[in-house]
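Design job #97: recover the sequence.
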């Protein structure tokens, strides 16, 4: 679609794949998030993929690709592994609700970027303190 930006992160060592689309309103759609992109390799460490999503959202704001008032959206179920195991849709939906996402129906979830950043800081505080100190030393 016109006026959209796609951003892809793939790390073969950690077996992670993340894909975003940012629309002309600067809303961010988390298209895919795999913690085990290659089923023949071990999963990424628990929480690592979500912490990378947090870091990428921060980068998007810093680079003015998105803004804090924009929305982060996802479809639960696009965010699974390729292990061949069927994901538990109820568990996925509960996980996103527990993270603070609003259930928009039919496995669609959303929240503001600001609310997501607060969740990131709460759950990955050590990472954020490390990033803050790096920024302050520049």
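Job complete. Output follows.
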């Amino acid at each position: 679609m016109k006026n959209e930006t796609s951003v892809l992160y793939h790390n073969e060592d950690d077996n992670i794949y993340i894909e975003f689309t940012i629309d002309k309103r600067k809303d961010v759609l988390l298209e895919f998030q795999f913690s085990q992109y290659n089923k023949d390799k071990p999963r990424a460490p628990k929480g690592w993929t979500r912490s990378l999503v947090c870091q990428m959202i921060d980068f998007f704001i810093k680079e003015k690709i998105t803004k804090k008032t924009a929305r982060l959206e996802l479809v639960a179920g696009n965010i699974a592994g390729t292990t061949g195991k069927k994901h538990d849709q109820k568990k996925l939906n509960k996980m996103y609700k527990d993270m603070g996402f609003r259930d928009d129906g039919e496995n669609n979830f959303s929240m503001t970027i600001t609310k997501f950043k607060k969740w990131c800081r709460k759950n990955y505080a050590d990472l954020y303190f490390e990033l803050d100190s790096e920024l302050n030393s520049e």
